[in-house]
Amino acid sequence: MANISSIGRNEWMLKGPLAKKGYDWWWHSLTAEHAKTGEKKPFYIEFFTCNPAHAEKDPVIVWHDEVARQSGKRPSYLMVNVGFWGKEHGQLHRFFSLRDVALHAFPPFSIKAEDCYLDETRTCGSVKITPEEAAAHPEWMCDAGEMTWDLTIQKQIAFHVGYGASKFFRTINAFEMFWHAEGIKTIYGGKITLNGEEYIVRPETCNGYADKNWGGDFTSPWVWLSSNNLTSRITGKKLTNSAFEIGGGRPKIYFLALNRKLLGSFYYEGKDYEFNFAKFWTGSGTKFACRETEDEIQWHVTQTTFTAKLDTYIRCKKEEMLNINYEAPNGTKRHNRLWNGGTGTGILKLYERKGKEFVLVDEIYAEGIGCEYGEYDD
């Protein structure tokens, strides 16, 4: 069973060794409607923290400074990272020293820096970068623009990855990158203003998502696919109590890199189908391929257990995606083509085993898919 709420996994994790070499972020993505035209546009909001033990008076960014990095300097900050997808797309970053951040680390968590705020049920804030600032500060890794938001949050369906992110494995920092998705279906409401244009976030059309990642480094390859905007191609009906989630790449346990593996879950109209390699007793197996063409990023994932199979075919137009930017806790920036989008579309084919055969349960059209793919430059 994967739909298990665990707000304890949403607490701030940068304690012990991760305080000196670690990141922890909370991610929210959703679709809003233009207040005048009704045009739909997908957005994301992320609160990214890094290396609190190295906090200084001002935010510390080092990926662009080889001398500082070689001398042992490490990044430290809260980065409020907001963005938007589509033909007009961008990412805006606002940095704070962690000395100036009010953090309630334990569940239910909260984080606040000036007017930027996030907890389990609400987020608000603003980010403004002028063209002059963006040009003068390439180390900020962002575009120019202005975005404000004020949103309510209600998480409805979770993806609990199991013992791999349990308190024991978190305490010993067994994995290089941890993951918990408290809201693979999340209901948002409120307002976003982007570059002077107002967007309304409606609970019934927001296609909302919320998760978090933390650890000592990132993964390569990096894969993420998720949506709850799903329609049965057999019945033609919207699946209002469903969401799917796939993520992972090449997990590392201490210094041991495992073969390419993904975690996945499809909560289909109240029934859980989980594809989790850590739960070996379920017979879970995954094959996946990610492909970059001239115009698209494409994903094909086949996941099986002893009792079920999910075939997933996803594509997203590169002109609607970002190359999203992150600095690793050691001060390097190795992901420079990390394709990230919110307008993916695709087909999911869900099967259940009947005797020796897999029998089709449903064929589903998915829209507004949050999607990611990237590999290290070297």
Oligomeric state as shown:
single chain
Mean pLDDT score: 93
Estimate nothing, just give the exact number of structural domains: 1
User: How many separate helices?
Assistant: 3
* Overall helicity: under 10%
Unreliable spans are none
Total beta strands: 25
Q: Biggest β-sheet, characterized?
A: 12 strands, antiparallel
Report the principal-axis shape: globular
Radius of gyration: 20 Å
SSE topology:
Layout: E1 23-34, E2 40-50, H1 66-70, E3 77-84, E4 90-96, E5 102-104, E6 110-113, E7 116-119, E8 122-129, H2 131-136, E9 145-159, H3 167-171, E10 177-194, E11 197-201, E12 208-215, E13 222-227, E14 229-232, E15 243-249, E16 252-253, E17 256-257, E18 261-268, E19 271-275, E20 285-292, E21 296-304, E22 308-317, E23 322-323, E24 339-354, E25 357-374
Antiparallel strand pairs: 1-2, 1-11, 1-12, 2-3, 3-4, 5-6, 6-7, 7-8, 8-9, 9-10, 10-11, 10-12, 13-15, 13-25, 14-25, 15-18, 16-17, 18-19, 20-21, 21-22, 22-24, 23-24, 24-25
What does this structure look like?
This protein has 378 residues and is mainly beta. It has one domain. Helix content is 4%, strand content 53%. It contains 3 helices and 25 strands. It has helices at 66-70, 131-136, 167-171, and strands at 23-34, 40-50, 77-84, 90-96, 102-104, 110-113, 116-119, 122-129, 145-159, 177-194, 197-201, 208-215, 222-227, 229-232, 243-249, 252-253, 256-257, 261-268, 271-275, 285-292, 296-304, 308-317, 322-323, 339-354, 357-374. Strands 1, 2, 3, 4, 5, 6, 7, 8, 9, 10, 11 and 12 form a 12-stranded antiparallel β-sheet that branches. Strands 13, 14, 15, 18, 19, 20, 21, 22, 23, 24 and 25 form an 11-stranded antiparallel β-sheet that branches. Strands 16-17 form a two-stranded antiparallel ribbon. The protein is globular, with a radius of gyration of 20 Å. The two termini are 38 Å apart. The model has no long low-confidence stretch (mean pLDDT 93).
